[in-house]
Write a structure and sequence with these properties.
This protein is α/β, with parallel strands linked by helices. Strands 13, 14, 15, 16, 17, 18 and 19 form a 7-stranded mixed beta sheet that branches. The chain has a 5-stranded parallel beta sheet with strand order 2-1-3-6-7, sandwiched between helices. The radius of gyration is 36 Å and the shape is globular.
Amino acid sequence: MAQVIKILHLEDVETDALLAEAVLQKSPIVFKKVVVDNREDYIRALQRFVPDIVISDHSLPGFNSLDALKILKEGAYNIPFILVTATVSEEFAVSIMREGASDYILKDRMQRLPVAIANAIEKAELEKEQLKFLKELITNEAFLIEAEKIANIGSMEVELRSQETKWSPGMHRILGYSMDEVQPSLEKFIDCVHPDDNKMVKMKIDIAISSRQSATLNFRTQGKNGNIKYIHAKLLVHTDRKGNASYLKGFAQDITGIALSEKSLLSATLEKQNAEHLARTKEMFLANMSHEIRTPMNAIIGMSNLLAKTVLDSKQQLYLNTIHSAADNLLSIISDILDLAKIGAGKISIEQVGFSFKELIDKTVQVLSFGADEKGLPIAVSINNENISPIHVGDPHRISQVLINLVSNAIKFTDRGKIELSVEVLEDLPDSQTLQVQVKDTGIGIADSFLKHLFDKFSQENESTTRTHGGTGLGMSICKELIELMGGRIYARSQKGVGTTISFIIRLAKGNKADLPAKNTVTFEENFLLGKKILVADDNDMNRLLAAVILQNYGAEIIEAGNGEEAITMMTEKPNLILMDIQMPVLNGLDAAAILRAQGVTTPMIALTANAIAGEREKAIAAGMNDYIAKPFDEGDFLDAVNSWLRKIDTTNTAETTEPLYDLTKLRAMSRGNEAFVKKMTGIFCEQAPQMVAEMINACAGEDFERIAAVAHKIKPSVDNLRVHLLTQLVRDIEKAANDHINRDKLSEMLNQMADIVRKAIAQMQSDNL
């Protein structure tokens, strides 16, 4: 009868495990296979299943093939190990073979698996025979003593009738005594145990002797000088011919290093958990604060913009300008707090796009000139036009944010005199320029004692400053953080009663016209939404009214819902587009979107949310939304998004394609036409692929690039086996982009493209009854 080979398969992708089993079933090998997908089940299977061989994927939840191989070596399991992976570099293959792997196999060459297993088993049997022979040779005491030193172990032998006791040199060393310093005895061994563990150890020894059974102990010892060691021990009881306990043998291992490391790791884990909880609490507070303030602000700003389109007298225009100014100030405070939180969490990104520094200065002055004119303050601008590059590459939005903060502060704290804004080229290289930007005022100035705290968070010179001039004390801190994120530095000089000069130095790459973002000026026909039915779901009456008025002005028919549950019910009206608030009572927008997508609704959905927190867009896309707009929104951007998605759905309806997105030829060949197997593999893809894509989108929101790469690597074999051709290269690009820590927005775009293809491929499979 052929030998049954027990195979332990470490694999977290069900389709890959099934594929390996199908290949083995076609071979002469008689086998019994157990599949596990995590560290705990792996260790348990090694102990209970007792495999003859381990085959393992590389990337697994929480650990990898090197970890699995290390567990085999540390547990002294003399079991051959084969790596089975989708891709592997030559360097890694050499590395894992050096670590003790028997072989490695690529998943697209799975047919080699039976031969590799047979060869590995044969080699392991030969090595076992050699090891057995070697162990018989190593019997002299010198080798045993050296082994004790290496493994930090010691042994004790007690003849129970005479109580004659022997300690090995290792046991003397563990207990803190030299060979001639103490007379070994069982009693002395127990005396060396830490007082808190002494009673437990004595009781376990007594139970082992009286029951004539082995025992395992974990305890501490306390040496002569008070040093504490952590000990793992094993007791074996031998009996005489009458069955009475006659001989006690004990083995002890000093595991102090391991125990202290575990304690340190546990402490670090608790600290990390506390920090993460604090961060989540802070983010939740900021999200709620942002939502509660931005929701009414959206209505205030939106209605003000609609009012501005009507005929107003000068007094009414003044009132309207005041409303706009107050709203902008409030939004500026909210944005400062959110920026501070994003900087603290390391979640703020710096763009690299082309822009004109001179235009940036002109726009800053244009935005702030009204406030300066009201106080009679001229803003003098000085730019070195001859040397400065016409186009730079950097983050114009963040530089503008710094400029507006510095110039608005200068205006705020200056009652007479002037404001000077200058730009100077400090270093001009062929591919970059170092610029110094300086904002100088003739205002109240800053005392020397406070100047060193100017860039601290929430810092203002005194309470009267807040009462007189307002502000949160966050602006200068954010300017410093942003300039340093862009690789620059910022500093200030000031004299009380004379004025303040704040300068920042920043290095920017030179660009050309190709680096400039395309300008997209969109105009809308008066009735471009005529005949379109749009569902607006929002629990805030003002925001529903604002959206309705804007859309109705362009001919749209509006359906309203006050929560997600009502929105689902309203789908009987067959809207062309859904605008969905995220935070709503009864049923929120994310859950409502997920339910609609599960019901097969393909109508475009745009998330409207006042949560301007990083990651909100990714959450919305993962739930099934197509786009995301933050409140308060710009009317032009809002209409552009609505128009864009309505045009996309019109294009899709007129140019529907029936081209198949997948090809099962390879899968059918591998399974020799087993349709049940093919259906099971496609069913697993339909169930798991959307979950894995959602997991990557959520990981992208948290900038967890390692998780994205791991999941992309995991889904790759299924994509290849089902030949979903639009995903074959895309999933590899996503894995590489995540490994290279590419720009999060670009990665998010690729993941959204993948989500759309997965949805369409699954829809085709389901329509084909797979």
